[in-house]
From TrEMBL:
Coiled coil stretches, renumbered: none
PROSITE patterns documented for this protein: SAM_TRM61 (PS51620)
Region annotation (Disordered) ranges: 1-44, 344-383
The protein's name: tRNA (adenine(58)-N(1))-methyltransferase catalytic subunit TRM61 C-terminal domain-containing protein
Gene Ontology molecular-function annotations: tRNA (adenine(58)-N1)-methyltransferase activity
GO biological process, one term: tRNA methylation
Biological source species: Kocuria dechangensis
Record keywords: Methyltransferase, S-adenosyl-L-methionine, Transferase, tRNA processing
Source species, domain of life: Bacteria
Residue ranges with Low complexity bias: 17-36, 362-375
Cross-referenced CDD domains: AdoMet_MTases
Chain intervals with Polar residues compositional bias: 1-12
InterPro entries: SAM-dependent_MTases_sf, TRM61_C, tRNA_MeTrfase_Gcd14
């Protein structure tokens, strides 16, 4: 364990200032009303190229096509079209969740929107649900889960590395304008900590995004209520196979269901309608099962002995190195964490919120992030 066993964000944002969007579900104020300083805004030019900027009172957006003062956007309604100093036009919109996830600071690969949407639907994440998540990474999936459970639900996220937790915390607070009342994040191993922090049979759903989810199935089965859902996101066929066999061997789950999702865009212009040449194909597999009542036996088609049988030697051949897993450097994680927490502080100021109390034993407000590397498709921004 690399840090305190539990770091819980419980501080609520301060009341919204006069003229701000009306109070509502967490994050709603940041999605409504005119643009405010501290918000991230997506600028799209006439050729469809997107640039993301964080608005500042004296800021400017610089590109090889001219300069656009941020004052041209602050106070204007969403959907405004503005011109820069050279006459080039941009349409300004708040980034959608899919845009934010793909451009936010990260220390690990994110769960893509197509998979996050499937997880929320296939696992039946409902408002008010008690959900456990393991493998927070950069917080992309956490944002989708928090939106699904709502302010009255409960999401308990477990992360082994505190550096990843800092990045996720900053990204979540940027999206929601401050700490989310339904979110609790703990530093530690799910297999060891879940039984200590959640009562048996008290959890509705469990989402595992980790290298070896089969190691946590005993703890998951104990925490899940009868009928509860466990869903795992894995990257390789080897992981998929081993997770499925571990679910079957455990005996407390229904027959596992596995799938992958591919998204193909289409070009639609007049009568020229055709599929795009590129698509978002394999990113990962989803495998899910439900918790049986204690004493019940799994019903599944009988399988005859075949090449599907495996030995312990087959299992021992699996290693993270064989999968090409690469460790993320501490320097990269710290830089992404500073950037994420800095964006969260700006978002809180824009929405009239506060980041107080979210950094554990550290200062009450997140440190200002230095200018980090631009996201893909993002041009240089000068505050």
């Amino acid at each position: 364990m690399t840090g305190p066993a539990d770091q819980t964000a419980t501080t609520s944002p301060a009341p919204a200032p006069a003229g701000a969007a009306p109070a509502g579900p967490r994050g709603a104020a940041n999605r409504r009303g005119p643009f405010r300083a501290g918000e991230r805004v997506q600028l799209t030019d006439e050729r469809g190229r997107m640039n993301t900027v964080t608005l500042a009172d004296e800021g400017e957006f610089h590109s090889h096509r001219g300069v656009l003062p941020h004052s041209e956007l602050i106070g204007r309604p969403e959907g405004t079209v503005v011109e820069n100093s050279a006459g080039f036009r941009y349409q300004a919109l708040r980034p959608l969740l899919k845009d934010f996830v793909l451009s936010m600071p990260r220390g690990a690969a994110v769960v893509y929107p197509k998979d996050a949407g499937q997880i929320v639907t296939m696992a039946d994440i409902f408002p008010g649900a008690r959900v456990v998540e393991a493998g927070v990474g950069s917080g992309a999936l956490s944002i989708s889960l928090l939106r699904a459970v709502g302010d009255e639900g409960h999401l308990h996220s477990f992360e082994r590395r505190e550096e990843f937790a800092d990045i996720a915390r900053g990204n979540v607070e940027t999206m929601f304008g401050g700490p989310h009342p339904a979110w609790r994040i703990s530093i530690g191993d799910l297999a060891e900590e879940l039984g200590e922090q959640e009562e048996p049979g008290s959890v509705d759903r469990v989402v595992l995004d980790m290298l070896a989810p089969w190691e946590c199935l005993d703890a998951v089965a104990t925490a899940l209520a009868p009928g509860g859902v466990v869903i795992c996101y894995v990257a390789t066929v080897t992981q998929l196979s081993r997770t499925a066999e571990a679910m079957r061997a455990d005996g407390r789950f229904t027959e596992p269901d596995a799938s992958e999702t591919m998204v193909r865009g289409w070009h639609v212009e007049g009568l020229a309608v055709r599929p795009d040449h590129r698509m978002v194909a394999h990113t990962g597999f989803l495998i899910s099962a439900r918790r049986l009542a204690d004493g019940s036996e799994r019903l599944a088609p009988k399988r005859r002995a075949s090449k599907s049988e495996f030995s312990q030697e087959d299992l021992d051949a699996w290693t993270p190195v064989a999968l090409g897993e690469r460790d993320v450097s501490g320097k990269k994680l710290r830089r992404a964490g500073r950037e994420a927490l800095g964006l969260a502080e700006r978002a809180a100021r824009a929405g009239g919120g506060s980041t107080a109390g979210v950094l554990g034993d550290g200062p009450e407000t997140a440190p200002q992030a230095p200018a980090g590397p631009a996201a893909e498709g993002e041009e240089r921004e000068r505050p």
